[in-house]
Amino acid sequence: MSSLANLEQLYxxxxxxxxxxxxxxxxxxxxxxxxxxxxxxxxSRNPRLLEDVKDPRGFLLRLAHNxxxxxxxxxxxxxxxxxxxxxxxxxLFVASDSPDEKIFAGxxxxxxxxxxxxxxAVVHLKLWEKLTFxxxxxxxxxxxxxxxxxxxxxxxxxxxxxxxxxxxxx
Amino acid sequence: MNSDFEKRLxxxxxxxxxxxxxxxxxxxxxxxxxxxxEWLWPCPRAWAGLAAAWVVIFGMNLATGxxxxxxxxxxxxxxxxELQALREQQQMLTRLIFPAESAESQPPKxxxxxxxxxxxxxxxx
Lengths: 170, 125
Prior knowledge:
The structure holds two protein chains of two kinds.
Chain A: H1 3-26, H2 29-45, H3 56-74, H4 76-79, H5 82-86, H6 99-114, H7 117-127, H8 133-140, H9 144-169
Chain B: H1 4-10, H2 21-30, H3 35-40, H4 44-64, H5 68-97, H6 99-105
Helix pairs in contact in B: 5-6
């Protein structure tokens, strides 16, 4: 298989997951695209990068996370920190026709943006990538206990923040 | 294990990656890097370190205030002096070994006339 076909396959299999994860982290669409492009450029220039990797999705998520952190650090002087980026209004979820769903999705979007980036990353990997705490720990280079505690803190904050809307539409 | 609330969050579908990104990202990934980047790529830190070392050397050189031009001039001046001393030594040796020849070869020295032979200014009043 040619390297282009390999890249296309990787993009088709993991592009969506990487997009959602990086967008949730950075809350900025153009930056998300930059990170994805950098990731695929890296894969193209180092074809052996994935050679002995057992879990390509986990590896790519980790790579994307590191590139996103690097990008935030590079732009620290301009954007100060993650929190500034998180305040940008970026749609993370599919727009629904139902008004209740629309309100819930919008509120969840905002509530996620208010979480510290470390907690947001863990919540994303747990809820939308369905990773175990061990896998999350390996992806983010933290201990499983740290991953679990960050997740619990984040869920408590989200529950608190979304309780009125959640109770209403339940 | 997950609460209803967590399940509710999980069910929230994520937005899809824009379709037009695919071609752009894959094309960019296939584009070869510029030659200078490829040249620096294997060890950019090493090159940066080398460049920094040169900057430090240049800075130190400037700080000492001795330019290569000046030092060359100093060397030249020293070598001229040495050359002159060498010539004088050679002449002295020649005079010592062949005193007659050296006397002939040298122009006769003009000895000053005795004071008494000096013309006297006569003032006629």
